[in-house]
Amino acid sequence: MSAPQFDPAVYATQLEEKKQRLIDLLAPFGAPEPQVFDSAREHYRLRAEFRLWREGEDRHYAMFAQGDKHTPILLEDFPIASRRINQLMPRLKAAWHGSKVLGFKLFQAEFLTTLADDALITLCYHRPLDEEWQAEAEKLAAELQVNIVGRSRGKRIVIGRDFVEEKLTVAGRVFTYRQPEGAFTQPNGEVNQKMLNWAYEALGERQDDLLELYCGNGNFTLPLATRVRKVLATEISKSSVYAALANLADNAVDNVTLVRLSAEELTEALNEVRPFRRLAGIDLKSYEFGSVFVDPPRAGMDPDTCELTRRFERILYISCNPETLAENIAQLSDTHEITRCAMFDQFPYTHHMESGVLLTRRKA
User: Fold this and answer.
1) What positions constitute the catalytic site (predicted)?
2) Is 214 annotated as a binding residue?
3) CA-based Rg of the chain, rounded to a whole angstrom?
4) How does pLDDT run across 194-252, given as a tens digit for each residue?
């Protein structure tokens, strides 16, 4: 993980620059001015990973500048990380210095926390983990009141749970989420909550069905499912699928069918290019899709998937890359127009941003 340039004094200027960049990218499509959702200036990041750097007999948390893996930036705290991470950092450091079992060949520490104040620490080793390590890790987990995952080549030991529990409020309802160790989660919890509320409002109350591509652990699925008759959601990652199924059950959301397919595979299925065993028992023709929700990776939607979304009256699109968002909109702009637009500052002090658009079919 590269070290961001932390300087709250320049935050407002950087936010305005990001807003203008999004405006410029979407200007060819007549987009309305984006609604801007800012971030807390510090303690906003719910996950962090650090390499450990040895100096003499001591090891320190370390990060590196972009492109430089040889000059460590040694850290005692990390202001952009959650308060829980900052509380845990010195206590974990004291533990690896105080225990040869915990400290021996430890090379990386990863923290995953939530707005609900749950925490998981992953400890990565260049040696096999044994029963002695597990006994020490269990004591540490109890002392810190965290879950711990130990990783070494070919082995993974879980102390407590291998996920954290999050609570996010959307339109007054609290949704609970399991967020697995090692799986993708939104790093900025407060801004994620703002994204969920924006998407919930943008979709509106519908009497038809929703197709969701790239659903992950169900981050958006849970609240959006309450706005439509039923949802067909897809995700390719096994760990995310398992988490999403658990999250649907935990929140008593029963109008979602989740299938482990990539967006490209579902496009083939809907186009009747070929059948998929994972769709056995699912009648695709029974859905009355009025909207599609997409939250693709940085590469955006591939051309075939983008073409698929053209079929829908409404395309609700969350993007982590405004350049590929603009490329996808260019493909769709002859049939759809941007009616709502937003920018979410998930990543302060970097050039990265999340954005959202609602595209609706042009009137004939």
Assistant:
1) 320 (nucleophile), 320, 354 (proton acceptor)
2) yes
3) 22
4) 999 999 999 999 999 999 999 999 999 999 999 999 999 999 998 899 999 999 999 99
